[in-house]
Write a structure and sequence with these properties.
Shape: elongated
Number of strands: 8
Order of helices and strands: EEEEHEEHHHHHHEEH
Number of helices: 8
Oligomer: single chain
Largest sheet: 6 strands, antiparallel
Helix content: 40-55%
Length: about 200
């Protein structure tokens, strides 16, 4: 079953063509991937004009790449009204685990191969784990950073991703058993290969 939500909607603008607004639609597909699509709603004057949908989004990296592509070719001028942060904050209302990792990727130094490699391992683990995310996005990003650092430290000490129940910041976090748990021997190859095949 498809889940479709309007992530953002610009204020109305009035021109010679009448009133219109611009929207960014997020769809969660049956295969658990996402798609993003911009549209212009011209109300009764011309109906909705949809732009090309970007499909097959499975990772935070792909989500931000899709968003940047929409902004770059944006006839809807969504980027004039909204920042990445505001869009990710809205995404958090619907898919919190995914949203906090999108935010984490947006904040990372993407020129660092080591940070990128670590992210490709740790982000899917946090997305798949059971976490009691707070209502406020700011608090959620703080908690996500703590969980991310906990997982990175665990890898350094044990040579594998954490799994099972751990008490962190006053709550019980249940890390999922994620494929590719042992990483020292694999030298990150599994996560990098998976990222490239999506």
């Amino acid at each position: 079953m498809l889940e479709r939500v309007m992530l953002i909607r610009t204020p109305d603008s009035i021109g010679f063509g009448g009133a219109c607004c611009n929207e960014l639609i997020l769809t969660r597909c049956k295969n658990s991937s996402y798609s993003l699509r911009a549209c212009v709603d011209q109300y009764s004057d011309g109906g909705r004009a949809y732009f090309r949908s970007i499909r097959g989004i499975r990772t935070p990296v792909q989500f931000l790449t899709a968003l940047e592509e929409i902004f770059a070719s944006d006839m809807t001028m969504l980027s004039d009204y909204f920042t990445n942060y505001e869009i990710i904050e809205k995404l958090y209302e619907y898919y919190p685990s995914f949203a906090v990792m999108v935010y984490k990727w947006d904040m990372l130094d993407r020129n660092s191969e080591e940070l990128t490699r670590d992210f490709n391992l740790i982000a899917p683990l946090i997305e798949a784990s059971t976490v009691n995310w707070p209502d406020l996005f700011d608090k959620a990003t703080t908690l996500a950073s703590i969980l991310y650092q906990f997982a990175a430290d665990w890898v350094d000490r044990h040579g594998q991703l954490p799994y099972g129940a751990h008490d962190i910041m006053g709550q019980r976090v249940l890390f999922a058993r994620y494929r590719g748990q042992r990483i020292r021997e694999q030298k990150y190859s599994l996560a990098v290969r998976d990222e490239g095949n999506d």
